[in-house]
């Protein structure tokens, strides 16, 4: 299609893929249900079970949820939410940078354009396998921090190899490790946010902040692989190394903070329930969300 209607091939790719995305988004807006009771494939018992799970997860289910500005502000005061956003910023910067520029990194190894596309597959295949393994153990043992730290460690090794690596084999291995670690870490981080926020408005606000932070990192990543730094891309390698170290330090800090908050809930529940102690449990949880003494933070 290159040259058709005066447009270049890459312009047609952007147009067609973008058009499909927009149309699918509009279609999804029309067909996605607003709640469990709107799912046409659910039987009554399925709907009841789904609502019960939502309530057990710390969310009071309502078909029409009113957004409370006070609850939004309360999330902005939570240190653990901001730490999570900083970690996701670091991860997002590395992740988007690799997503955008991994073909350029592989091509700098000396491969043809066709082989470059093929050689970008193994790193993502490894990332997929490690992501599935990490997700399984992270969910089974409810340990997001350990999963995030270990996978970040894999990325750290890859970034360190990329800085000093000069041979094709070392540079390619560095890319595999870096991409595997960064991509496998992302699910641990993004699931960590809703795990530690309860109440519909609080959770929605925290998740929105997390995605904003991740995409802000993606904006920064567009400048870390300048063409003049080819073929070794030292700037990008140092950037990835620095942000990975920062992310790992923040993960350790986050685990420590969440453990401290859990201990505080256990040692002084009366103080946390002050003002709502006479209300039923469901109303207490609705007002306090994840700050309720019975709500245990996942670390």
UniProtKB/TrEMBL annotation:
A GO molecular-function descriptor: transmembrane transporter activity
Subcellular location: Membrane
Principal localisation: membrane
Domain of life: Eukaryota
Pfam families in UniProt: MFS_1
Species, as recorded: Aspergillus pseudotamarii
Protein family: Belongs to the major facilitator superfamily.
Membrane topology: Multi-pass membrane protein
Gene Ontology, cellular component aspect: membrane
UniProt keyword list: Membrane, Transmembrane, Transmembrane helix, Transport
Residue ranges of the TM segments: 12-32, 79-101, 121-138, 145-163, 169-193, 205-225, 237-258
PANTHER family: PERMEASE-RELATED, TRANSPORTER, PUTATIVE (AFU_ORTHOLOGUE AFUA_6G00710)-RELATED
InterPro entries the UniProt entry points to: MFS, MFS_trans_sf
The protein's name in its UniProt record: Major facilitator superfamily domain-containing protein
